[in-house]
TrEMBL record:
SUPFAM superfamilies: MoeA C-terminal domain-like, MoeA N-terminal region -like, Molybdenum cofactor biosynthesis proteins. NCBIfam families: molyb_syn. Pfam families: MoCF_biosynth (PF00994), MoeA_C (PF03454), MoeA_N (PF03453). Its EC number is 2.10.1.1. Residues 172-310 form the MoaB/Mog domain. Signal peptide: none annotated. The keyword Transferase applies. Belongs to the MoeA family. It catalyses: adenylyl-molybdopterin + molybdate = Mo-molybdopterin + AMP + H(+). It comes from Mariniflexile jejuense. This is Molybdopterin molybdenumtransferase.
């Protein structure tokens, strides 16, 4: 059994970035990182563009202009303005090459086809130059840029349909246990509804990992070896729920040994989630999580989350941490470090009732962990405590 700190170090050390290229449609590339730099195929804006609703002017010495036409956004008119001419223009519309400035409509008096400015205006006012954001052939976004919604919008504005990105890991969730049945099945005595796969799937989806498959294994050694062999050979990351303890029908550990999965650690000195396994085989990373739901999700956030960030070659691996003032009391039993389910709010944190590793109801409303190291035996109201913020 190793410490939490040792386990985190091993996950970071043994998880290798995928660094594999794939192509995605721009609208489906959110959350990915660019594998290649993107050069702009066009000038943006592609023409001199009006920054507001108003009047485009060919400047002269007078404040009075002759209104000759109108240009809406999307019009392809290419008007020629003489000195003293003006055209009504709208935000985003193309400004004629013979116009020197755009004056906002609030600063103009209109009388038929004659407009009078309230004051003089400088050249190029309220005109976005062609290529102001980026010019054709220039760097639009650098390699490694994470594609946020704003980045997706920017690339789309350049007319880019597909982008080369770093591949996200393919992930298999494997559940074990004869007692587990699907939600649409009527429970018989001794059965429970299987929830860990949906819980882990939701956690992965919330982090924008969508290449996920789910597999069910009965408590049978031969089936366990066969199915684990299949998923280990076909995916980048395997999350096994349950079957890793030492009971008569816990076959996962033995199967992983037979399949020659290299063990980096098994059992972590923590509560909940002590029976946690992490190993690798070739380029596949394997986590065998505890079967108890709260323990499984705790291990997901503390260890699998780090592995996911490493696989994506991100620079920030761990969840954000802060100090918060406890509004609750708690007495810890035993000497293992403990992750307490809690609600964090603006510098204050409340310890929730029901800290058992099987208690999902408490976890359902938590947005943070309070971490108690092995030297801490209790928390009092007003204590400053280590708090880990969950991505909820």
């Amino acid at each position: 059994m190793i410490s939490i700190e040792e386990a985190i170090i091993l996950v970071k050390k043994e998880t290798k970035p995928l660094l594999t290229e794939t192509t995605k449609p721009v609208e489906k590339a959110g959350g990915y990182k660019l594998f290649k730099a993107v050069l702009s195929p066009i000038n943006m804006p592609p023409f001199r563009q009006s920054a507001m609703d108003g009047y485009a002017l060919h400047l002269h010495d007078s404040l009075v202009y002759n209104l000759i036409d109108e240009i809406k956004a999307g019009d392809n008119k290419q008007l020629t303005l003489k000195k003293g001419d003006a055209v009504r223009i709208f935000t985003g519309a193309a400004v004629p090459n013979t116009a020197d400035a755009v004056i906002m409509q609030e600063k103009v008096e209109v009388n038929g086809n004659i407009i009078t400015l309230q004051n003089k205006i400088n050249k190029n006012t309220n005109i976005r130059p062609e290529g102001e954001q980026v010019k054709k052939g220039e760097l639009a976004l650098a390699k490694g840029t994470k594609l946020t919604p704003a980045a997706i919008g920017y690339l789309s504005s350049l007319g880019i349909k597909n982008v080369s990105v770093f591949k996200k890991p393919s992930i298999a969730i494997v559940t074990t246990g004869n007692e587990l049945v699907k939600a649409e099945t009527e429970l018989e005595y001794g059965q429970i509804y299987e929830s860990n796969s949906k819980m882990l799937l939701s956690a992965l989806y919330s982090l924008k990992f969508y290449d996920v498959s789910i597999h069910k294994i009965e408590d049978d050694y031969i089936e366990t070896v066969s199915k684990l062999n299949n998923v280990i050979n076909s995916t980048d990351l395997v999350l096994i729920s349950g079957g890793i303890s030492v009971g008569d029908y816990d076959f996962v550990g033995k199967a992983l040994t037979e399949l020659k999965v290299k063990e980096h650690f098994y059992k972590v000195k923590q509560k909940p989630g002590k029976p946690l396994f992490f190993g690798t085989k070739n380029n596949t990373h394997v986590f065998a999580l505890p079967g108890n739901p709260a323990a499984a999700l705790t291990c997901f956030y503390m260890y699998v989350y780090i592995a996911l960030q490493k696989l994506m070659d991100n620079t920030v691996f761990e969840l954000p941490k802060t100090k918060a003032t406890s509004s609750s009391k708690f007495i810890k039993s035993g000497d293992r470090p403990q992750f307490l389910k809690a609600i964090y709010d603006n510098g204050n944190v409340q310890i929730l009732e029901g800290q058992s590793s099987a208690m999902q109801q408490t976890f359902a409303v938590a947005n943070a962990f309070i971490f108690m190291d092995e030297t801490q035996s209790n928390i009092e109201i007003g204590d400053l405590v280590d708090t880990i913020l969950l991505p909820v």
